[in-house]
Amino acid sequence: EEDLLNDVCREVVEKWSESQIVDAKEKKEDEIQAIASMMEKQAKIVVKPKEISQEEKQRKAALLAQYANVTDEEEYPFPDPVKTHTLPALNSLPALFRNTNVEDVLNARKLERELLRDEFQKKKEQDKLQREKDKLAKQERKEKEKKRTQKGERKR
């Protein structure tokens, strides 16, 4: 019976191994199928070319022509950052467009300083009012204390 038992065990292990191999093959086939379907979907995606109007084409051509005429010897339409640190220098340049970044930053700083100045002024006024209130409250306390002491002395 031991031989029969060994044969049965061996047969069970062989069947189990075969089923594992079949499952692995099926998984690989499923993965391959999934990849193939993804590739097909990607292949179906078509990017439509953007339609550009005649006006946009002309505008683009004009811009390119403007920049094509600038040479290395000519001053580029942008100011040299080393030369220009002030606002009037920006306005004197004959540029194609005006770079307002510096102006915007300076205006923002100026506005921020003004806001801080206003806040400081308000705080200063509030502190002054608070000191006056404290002073009045202190005087009132002194007067009340004085009245109390006078009342106490009258009782004696």
UniProtKB/TrEMBL annotation:
Region (Disordered): 119-156
Comp. bias intervals (Basic residues): 144-156
Residue spans of biased composition, Basic and acidic residues class: 119-143
Coiled-coil parts of chain: 21-73
InterPro entries: CCDC43
This protein's UniProt keywords: Coiled coil
Designated name of the protein: CCD43 protein
Organism expressing this protein natively: Chauna torquata (Southern screamer)
